[in-house]
Amino acid sequence: MNKIFLFDALREATDEEMQRDKSVFVLGEDVGHYGGSYKVTKDLHVKYGDIRVLDTPIAENSFMGMAIGTAMTGLRPIVEGMNMSFLLLAFNQISNNAGMLPYTSGGNFSIPLVIRGPGGVGKQLGAEHSQRLEAYFQAIPGLKIVACSTPHNAKGLLKSAIRDNNPVIMFEHVLLYNLKNDVPSEEYFLPLDKAELVRSGNEITIITYSRMRYHVIQAVDILLKDGYDPEVIDLISLKPIDIESIAKSIKKTHKLIIVEECMKTGGIAAEIIAQVNDQYFDFLDSNIIRLSSQDIPTPYNGNLEKATVVQPQQIVEAVKSMLS
């Protein structure tokens, strides 16, 4: 095992896949000589050249369209969004082209495309740089969506995404790049459609993903001292949602709390609640609680920004309220 940063895990995955397969290349703003906003592509241009690590103009719709075109013709592009918020400028290309071309072409084209980059609420990045776009893209047919949360799953998921023949969006949280943890030294892959059981418990199921995994872990540390026994699941796959893993847990605990950084209205939690109520309502002993960000643009002010996002103490209170 090697203890590395999350951004290094992503860099290793990219490097290994580029070395293995000459059809893999990276493009995006400042991915080349600058090494990417968070150094995920640092020095790769030295090893692979300026064509396979391609610096693009500030024109998201243009280089996303180019990436989709190259995927149609046999290459395997990795698009880095300097900030995932900017990908709204390429929403048409991602939805109408990447997501739908395999279907509208009658199966004549596959789109082996990876779109990855930083998102989420950082530290005073302002509203336009604090977007959580997972719910925007979840409604688009033909896409796979994952959210990494550890160096281990970041590397395993990215390698699987690069080899997948479908378009995959991989959300990375801006505050997790400097997270350091163990990663196997041998090659490994992780499935793009499975949740991770973070902690086994019997009293209540807590579902989360991305940065909120760590807010949940902080809350669980407090709850354990008070004698509670929660089960924690990291979704990882946001499309498709691993409803089987969720159902297995609900059948054991009969109670469910969902913690997300996404907005409450139309968020990932809303989709989980709909699926659980449709298929597993009879296993619930109480109403599902969802803890989500407030439906407002993220404030620049640090204290106000913190107030918009779910904090560990809110999770503790929600668990105690449900179990009382």
TrEMBL record:
Family annotation (InterPro entries): THDP-binding, Transketo_C/PFOR_II, Transketolase-like_Pyr-bd, Transketolase_C
Catalysed transformations (reactions): N(6)-[(R)-lipoyl]-L-lysyl-[protein] + pyruvate + H(+) = N(6)-[(R)-S(8)-acetyldihydrolipoyl]-L-lysyl-[protein] + CO2
Claim: Secreted is one of the keywords in the record: no
Cofactor(s) this protein cannot do without: thiamine diphosphate
Any GO molecular function: metal ion binding
Keyword Oxidoreductase belongs to the record: yes
Keywords: Metal-binding, Oxidoreductase, Plastid, Potassium, Pyruvate, Thiamine pyrophosphate
Transketolase-like pyrimidine-binding domain segment(s): 4-179
Top-level taxon in the UniProt lineage: Eukaryota
Summary of the function given for this chain in its UniProt record: The pyruvate dehydrogenase complex catalyzes the overall conversion of pyruvate to acetyl-CoA and CO(2). It contains multiple copies of three enzymatic components: pyruvate dehydrogenase (E1), dihydrolipoamide acetyltransferase (E2) and lipoamide dehydrogenase (E3).
Subunit structure: Heterodimer of an alpha and a beta chain.
Designated name of the protein: Pyruvate dehydrogenase E1 component subunit beta
